[in-house]
Amino acid sequence: MEPVTGQPVTDLLAGWLPRQRWFAGKGREIDEISIATATELRPSDPAVHHLVLAVRQGETLDRYQLLLGMWDGLPERLRPGEIGLLPGTSRTWLYDAAHDPQATRILLEHMAQGTVVGPLEFHQAPGMEIDTGLDGVVGTAEQSNTSVIFGDSYICKLFRRLSPGVNPDLEVNLALTNLGCAHVPAVYGWVELEPSGGPGLADDEGATLALLSEFLRTGTDGWQLAITSVRDWFARSLPPGTEPDPAIAGGDFASESERLGAATAAVHRDLAAAFGVTAQPVTAISAAAEGMREQLAEACRDVPELVPYAKAIRAAFDEFAGLAGSPPFQRIHGDFHLGQAMRTDSGWVLLDFEGEPARSPGERRAVSHPLRDVAGMLRSFEYAARFLLADEEGTSAEGARELEMRAHTWAKRNRSAFCRGYAAAGGVDPAANSIIVRAFELDKAVYEVRYEARNRPSWLHVPLRSLAHLSD
Ligand SMILES: Nc1ncnc2c1ncn2[C@@H]1O[C@H](COP(=O)(O)OP(=O)(O)O)[C@@H](O)[C@H]1O
Ligand SMILES: O=P(O)(O)O[C@H]1O[C@H](CO)[C@@H](O[C@H]2O[C@H](CO)[C@@H](O)[C@H](O)[C@H]2O)[C@H](O)[C@H]1O
């Protein structure tokens, strides 16, 4: 294989990276890319190298992983991963080998054998046996990383932006699998970058590179189920004089929401058992409120559309800060929304315990109030109910009012059902802690405003519209 570490390759990657969904530094200039580690996994036909790229953007140094494939003449089936022609050659193509079953199978083989290749440590979970005879296909879900699905058996998440230390998704899934929790996918294996994995690394903690989990063959993600229900409710014609009640819609989702609430409480209970519960000093709530205020100030600087709501949001944070007591904090999901839960034939399964992509590794693993997850899911019901409203902008004022009212009734019904299920299964009762829930919801909506402005500007109206209601 030709050298993969030269300037022409990094120049090519500098053009390709910002076009990737998973690249977290969009909108900021790339000052420098260097190759921190390059590990040959296969010498030829196709050659496959595992790369850790160190990407400097201003003060920020991020690390990303890439399975880099190289072919003479790229076959059509690998076009989705095309990076470009290796400069100085006329037919040697570089491509993202996550799209190549021949390359991704190597990951399974190494995990099954528990091999160490250079700085890469492959692991098979205790008591599991990985079938290495399966072809991998890149998943099509909207996601922050890249997942490769192997037959009906496994899904392997390649963490793209590497955070130092063990990734909480691996840490939590492994701990809950060991406890026998029925609401997370079983862990089959993982890959780690050993500490001090090469030049250009900002730390010496190593990183989790990949997580191989049970593929939930019968699963449908909660977001898809919820928006199907919303669409059904929006399309339903109501006989004149009928009270608009989403319970009568064919696609009513409330009993699923209630079961999802119960599954969330069960996962919180297992997280507390696995990682413990820590009584916080009386200052914990005011410290959390301070974090919320800081995020709000930064978000207002980044997204001016948020400014009109800031005063009311700050007032809710102040009310939260004034609460007395020392709440028990514990590990939580951290970025809980409908897309992070799958309904399978045996119930709800929670996914992706990585926390919010924009938070620091320390924040993602920090203990917090479990109602923060509840608030995350409540925001998601708002999203599901409201994101379709923008599509209806051509409708009359009366039609728009009707849809707004339907969105409101759908969200209210499903929010209540989720909270009911959560409390009935032993979770902290959201209804009895409305100041806390409201502050966490507003904090999440502020995060979302920033997230949407950076990643999906056409969705920015969704959290902004909610803020108009929430900050009333
Ligand atoms: N174990 C699994 N079985 C089936 N599908 C899964 C599984 N884990 C994740 N998915 C699908 O992949 C999507 C993205 O997964 P997620 O862990 O949230 O990735 P990311 O952290 O990259 O956003 C999920 O919304 C779901 O549709
Ligand atoms: O799933 P990720 O860990 O990548 O989470 C990020 O992306 C989510 C969107 O894909 C984003 O979630 C927001 O949009 C969802 C609808 O697509 C909605 O259900 C959520 O409530 C809303 O927060 C999440 O915030 C972000 O961290």
Automatic annotation (TrEMBL):
Gene3D superfamilies, from UniProt? 3.90.1200.10
Sorted keywords for this record are:
ATP-binding, Carbohydrate metabolism, Glycogen biosynthesis, Glycogen metabolism, Kinase, Nucleotide-binding, Transferase
Q: Tell me the ranges covered by the Maltokinase N-terminal cap domain, including all copies.
A: 16-100
Q: Which Pfam families match?
A: APH, Mak_N_cap
- Source organism, top-level taxon: Bacteria
Query: Which GO MF term does the entry hold, naming one?
Result: ATP binding
Xref: SUPFAM superfamilies: Protein kinase-like (PK-like)
This entry's Enzyme Commission designation comes to: 2.7.1.175
**InterPro entries recorded for this chain?**
Aminoglycoside_PTrfase, Kinase-like_dom_sf, Mak_N_cap
In the record, biological process GO terms are:
glycogen biosynthetic process
Q: In which pathway does it act?
A: Glycan biosynthesis; glycogen biosynthesis
Oligomer and partners: Monomer.
| UniProt name for this protein | Maltokinase
Which organism does this sequence originate in?
Actinomadura rudentiformis
